[in-house]
Amino acid sequence: MPSRLPGKVRKIDSYIGTNSTLSGDIFSKSSLCIEGVVEGNIFADGSVIVGKAAYISGNIEAHSTAVSGKVKGNIIVRDYAKLTSSCTVDGDIHAANFITDEGSIFNGKCYMTPTEPETEEEKA
Predict the structure, then answer these.
(1) Domain enclosing residue 54, as ranges
(2) Is residue 124 in a domain?
(3) pTM of the model
(4) Mean pLDDT, rounded, of the chain
């Protein structure tokens, strides 16, 4: 991972590969990267990275997210939601910061809400 990424993204704790399909909810205390298929909701204290080949059918709740694949569900993040040019999101986004590249497809509503400052426990 490049060092310019926020601290919550630098350490990927879990990885779901391109040849994997997971049915059910995911709960993570760290960040995770998904390249395969997830049929369920994702709850992460860190970041959720949705790779180009990934398909998520469920909601994502995390610190932040970067989407390059397909998400059919709502995205709720405390910091930023980044949509790359290869992504498709069908659902609403709730985020403090919203970043989208030209060419991304977003079908839903975006709600921008400021985040509360992180506590010392959350920064650790």
Answers:
(1) 7-113
(2) no
(3) 0.83
(4) 88
